[in-house]
Design goal:
single chain; mainly alpha; 5 helices; transmembrane; membrane; transmembrane helix
Length: 146
């Protein structure tokens, strides 16, 4: 029975890591949506109004970020947009890794070390996911479609 529990735990941790890496790009829109929603609620919009405003703000940030990244020609603009999306993803990766490491190891130094590695891994993954949405330069093909 304990063997099944260990397998289930490994499966759950794997699923959570997959979700973290998949949705890391959307950490900035989520942060903006929650912040705008809290502002709208504080200004008297009510629960439903604040949720609607927050969802619209999060969607706008996600769409505008993707459009800027997709259609901006200068590389420095793409880099700025990618870093804006990867920064909050790295913070989310740090928090998630630290939450897991805090339960697995007593040493605070090792907790911080593993958390930093998790932050870098999630941040780089978000950068690559953001870069994967950019259209190819004219005249270039993907390796798989050649």
């Amino acid at each position: 029975m304990i063997f099944l529990n260990i397998l289930l735990l490994v499966g759950v941790i794997g699923t959570m890591c997959w979700l973290l890496f998949t949705f890391a790009v959307y950490a900035l829109p989520l942060f903006v949506g929650v912040t705008v929603s809290m502002w709208a609620y504080g200004s008297g919009a009510g629960v439903i109004g604040s949720v609607v405003v927050g969802v619209l703000a999060a969607g706008a940030v996600a769409i505008i970020g993707q459009l800027i990244f997709a259609f901006a020609r200068p590389l420095w603009i793409r880099l700025i947009v990618a870093l804006l999306f990867a920064g909050p993803a790295a913070v989310a990766g740090y928090a998630a890794t630290h939450g897991i490491a805090r339960h697995l190891m007593p040493s605070e130094g090792w907790q911080m070390a593993f958390s930093a590695v998790g932050a870098v891994a999630v941040g780089i993954t978000a950068l690559f996911r953001m870069a994967g949405t950019a259209p190819l330069e004219p005249g270039m093909e993907r390796a798989g479609s050649a």
